[in-house]
Design brief:
single chain; alpha+beta; seven-stranded antiparallel beta sheet; 22% helix; 32% strand
């Protein structure tokens, strides 16, 4: 019984430390991480101020994460970031069936699949999701193939 209790406590510490949970790997969105998306000019940049796992019930097929981000932008060929004045919250639902990003004003289901790719308007959300939920940098089709995503519904 003591061994089970120790294993359970260690599992909670791992989740609390924002490392990994099941097949998810949250290290890409740890506090202080800089997340970038350069799908178009200017590049979108965000610094993780705080991260919180809101829901991680093992009976559910998703993990809900709240990121407090300080947003910014930089020109494609520049390293200088122009930071926003105030941070904002982004909620990410790490889910193989319904990968979603949400702000106070917008919610996006990200259609990860190995054949169609993600449309440009959702590329920043897709890259944020991949980095936050799987610590993955790279092509969305490669991501979908590696992790078994097959989401094709663009509706909300």
């Amino acid at each position: 019984m003591k061994k089970l209790l120790i294993l359970a406590v260690c599992g909670l510490v791992s989740v609390g430390a924002f490392a990994s949970y099941g097949w998810y790997d949250f290290r890409g969105a740890k506090k202080g991480a800089i997340l970038e998306s350069c799908y178009h000019d200017p590049c979108s940049v965000a610094k993780v101020i705080k991260n919180t796992i809101i829901k991680n019930n093992p009976d559910d097929d998703f993990v809900l994460i709240k990121l407090k981000l300080l947003g910014g932008s930089r020109e494609w060929d520049s390293k200088k970031v122009i930071w926003n004045r105030q941070p904002h919250n982004v909620y990410i639902t790490c889910s193989q069936n319904s990968p979603t990003t949400r702000t106070d004003s917008d919610s996006n289901l990200i259609p990860f699949n190995s054949e169609l790719g993600v449309m440009g308007a959702l590329m920043s959300d897709a890259q944020l999701y991949m980095k936050t939920c799987h610590n993955f940098d790279g092509d969305t089709a490669d991501f979908a193939k590696k992790y078994g995503y097959d989401v094709t519904d663009y509706s909300e």
